């Protein structure tokens, strides 16, 4: 019996939901509020004080409560343990209802009501399934994948399309249901078949005497269907050229059993049966997709359930019958769709769809996980999640309106899932840096008695994640430098290290502010053309100060006096590795001022204060409005939105250009909605997107190795863009054809 339970709870009310159907697994979905630490900064009141030796701002660590969705899988042996688990997480509430869906819910109805003291309220199976499917398609990047058994990378993840509708959902359970989904609430059952997973299981049991579904699939994976099936070449002696049919095409499933006087193996019969049913489903799905003019077909149900052998046969069938025009697509979390849908139905009064959600890598097992610490059982079958968590984000996320084509936008420059050499290097790189990160985390909380213990737990957890990714690089979708960085940040947060670099940033911001006026005076003394180059060089030099790059952190720790001028001397001389500075200068000379520039800032300290702000000041002087976007939450030594407010206030007190721009709202500070050292332009704060439209932004500036090289190096925009970075990793520099501290200066104008 396959039970999916969705639970929603908060301090005042609670609604619960479950989906039950035939199978062998219990899947629990529950909502919780998670208390964790967050770093806050607050400006000191410096009025009447000598601020020379005072910190720039106060840093505090506060408790914050956020919402989290949990999904855990159990064997049905542990159904009572599962219900005990739910009971332990209940709160005293007025509402006592559990939403149930699926025919098998009747089996557990009495047990649920007795154990939990809840009334079971049934919900429609298909409604829950569609709601769950829409939810994961909208909220989880790399949710969708195509399966390619014979390639180096079995899982080929797809780019999230901004508009998920319409699509075809083929749910293969006991039978087959084919559903056309047009909008969030509009869908219809357009067809199906009685020949589905139950047929494979039932006939397979009769043919092989094997009663367990997974064991039947295991037999099929070892079989050779050509020993049982009659092929085209068996009928015609080769290919049927007139109709263009390959000789290896199945002409008749089980056809050889009518003429061969022998016993067939269980493995061969199981494989023949699997092909017969998969081909039937594939052809049916293709015909319905063609009839309704749909090009997206998602497959789910217990017949799929992450099994490589079923995904492979369905993929082959779809490719054959569509002549390669349609791709069979699968979902990483398809086993939880009903549970998610039941949760959404139960929580409708709180409208969970109004929020954006993000996967918490620290609490998720990953595809084909073998993690034994999920619950009282170890997985015996690969291809599905043991544990999966999603955090509710504070603000809704949307595409940057200036993306040229959001449907083809890929944030990451290198796919480590595909590139084995790059994968090996970066995994080793993150392993070697781990001890230093753990040490930095512990040192950031000197007054905490358990900081070292928590830092060690972080180190061990992230190390285990890296080992999983060595064996299963597709565990969380496409593996990239960004996902490795984000996973590390998630693990740090899991053990209450919200901002290990807070004191470093505080100190560097204070030092850089003292140098701001002298840097501005020096720039103002230059002629126009000389000043433009000095501004760009300052922007690049500021970008050197990246504690996430080992080559830089080693220098900063061993040479405390390393500063702005020393960073300039490290830069590659022109011509740079990527150099379109001359075109940029020509644009400034000959073209009109830009209407509005959007700048994605990178590091705190010298980077934002001595690099970015002089550049901002020059744009403002040209008559260009500026939107300065900073991270919503901390990551490495990247500047956060709250820190940027304090820094900007101090700069405005020193500089009339900045002060005037703030007062007249020509300089606007916004948050990106991100807490990552990299940048995904398809998941940005909705308020930022609105502002970009309102101000008619026509220039985007992205700086930093994480935002402009690891991500967005190939991003195509509708407007002019500048991508600037200093390469602070020797391996990456060599891969790009340069040396460490090589410069990337990419000025791009969209094709008209």
From TrEMBL:
GO terms for molecular function: ATP binding; hydrolase activity; metal ion binding; pantothenate kinase activity. It holds the Pfam family Fumble. InterPro entries: ARMT-1-like_metal-bd_sf (IPR036075), ARMT1-like_metal-bd (IPR002791), At2g17340_3_helix_bundle (IPR035073), ATPase_NBD (IPR043129), PanK_long (IPR015844), Type_II_PanK (IPR004567). One of its GO terms (biological process) is coenzyme A biosynthetic process. CDD domains: ASKHA_NBD_PanK-II_Pank4. It comes from the Eukaryota. Keywords: Acetylation, ATP-binding, Coenzyme A biosynthesis, Cytoplasm, Hydrolase, Manganese, Metal-binding, Nickel, Nitration, Nucleotide-binding, Phosphoprotein. Signal peptide: none annotated. It catalyses: (R)-4'-phosphopantetheine sulfonate + H2O = (R)-pantetheine sulfonate + phosphate; (R)-4'-phospho-S-sulfopantetheine + H2O = (R)-S-sulfopantetheine + phosphate; (R)-4'-phosphopantetheine + H2O = (R)-pantetheine + phosphate. Transmembrane segments: none annotated. It is found in: Cytoplasm. One of its GO terms (cellular component) is nucleus. Its cofactor is Ni(2+); Mn(2+). Phosphatase which shows a preference for 4'-phosphopantetheine and its oxidatively damaged forms (sulfonate or S-sulfonate), providing strong indirect evidence that the phosphatase activity pre-empts damage in the coenzyme A (CoA) pathway. Hydrolyzing excess 4'-phosphopantetheine could constitute a directed overflow mechanism to prevent its oxidation to the S-sulfonate, sulfonate, or other forms. Hydrolyzing 4'-phosphopantetheine sulfonate or S-sulfonate would forestall their conversion to inactive forms of CoA and acyl carrier protein. In the N-terminal section; belongs to the type II pantothenate kinase family. Belongs to the type II pantothenate kinase family. This is 4'-phosphopantetheine phosphatase. It comes from Apteryx mantelli (North Island brown kiwi).
